[in-house]
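We treat protein structure as text, and this decision shapes the records that our systems exchange. We quote a single record here, exactly as it is kept in our systems:
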Amino acid sequence: AAAEEEEGGGEAANEVGKKAKRRLKRLSIAELKQLVSKPEVIEPWDVTSADPRLLVNLKSLRNTVPVPRHWSQKRKFLQGKRGVEKPPFALPEFIAATGIEKIRASVMEKENAKKLKGKMKERVQPKMGKIDIDYQVLHDAFFKFQSKPRLSRFGDTYYEGKEHEVQLRQKKPGVASDELQKALGMELGGPPPWLINMQRYGPPPSYPNLKIAGLNAPIPEGATYGYHPGGWGKPPVDEFGRPLYGDVFGTAGAEPAEQLAPSLSRDNWGAVEEDAEGSDDEEEEDEEEGGGGGDGDTASELSADEVAAGISSVASNSSLPSGLATPDSLHLRKQLGAQRAGTATPSSVTDGAQTPESVSSAQLYQVLQQRDAKLGGAAFGSSHTYDLSGAAPPPSSSSGG
């Protein structure tokens, strides 16, 4: 029994030794913050994970959804809201503005005032159209005046008491509301109580471009520096009287507008550059046209008699025979027989409105006499036939040559 107790005590000592070794190997919070790029995401229990560096790296990634904060709580989720009375549902403002809530309340009062017999009759023969409301009003409420509900952002998880927190989206740094001025006991147009410390220690590092009167901007008109009630403290200046953080005295001129660097061009980009060779060719053509302008001037100096004599000389020296003069109009249709034989003569040429003699003498069609007939045993018999004895034979085709 003593040996067993000794063995059990040795195992317990070994177990304690393992826990102690794990604690010795564990990084401290300060060491872990020095090893990572975003130490602000580290929580006290991150050092107990199997791989603290990987955990912090995952938490620092963009669009990472954090683990809900109630994961380590012993009590159940929303256990503290059991005794809180839930407020009744309220219609949105754009729907309540239509007045449908009052109409519905009046209808419900009439329903409650009815007796049992009237209710049973209403159940058998219900009446429609009790809530009389203009559909145009409903249309405008949903399509014109509907407001977007407040939604949570990506990765924003709910926790107890979140609805009681102050919403800081509409708050602007450096602008004190009337409620805040009244709570701090500030006078109208007076300095804020934190101005003295800012003049001593400098502007807030989170808002380097924020203009604060009495620190890096001039104080309002009629106000004076000093530590008396309503005074704006002491302006922050160096040993030579120069402002440390900005134009606190309002002596500097207006800030110049941002100008482009001198190397930047204001020319329109995308303009087509002119071809150097094309411009040279155009210049040469212009020179040639300019050189030939003298000949044109001499030609314009010729008299009208000389021009008429030149035209008559060209007409007299023409080599064309008199019979082959160009006609006023050319007719391409010829007689059918002459066209087939290839011996077209001027007499056979006709215009488009005339018909050649050979074509006009030919008969276009012939009416055949119809006779009744018996069907007989033919598969595709007909009850009438045509007399082909008086039909003219088709014209014979004659080959040329």
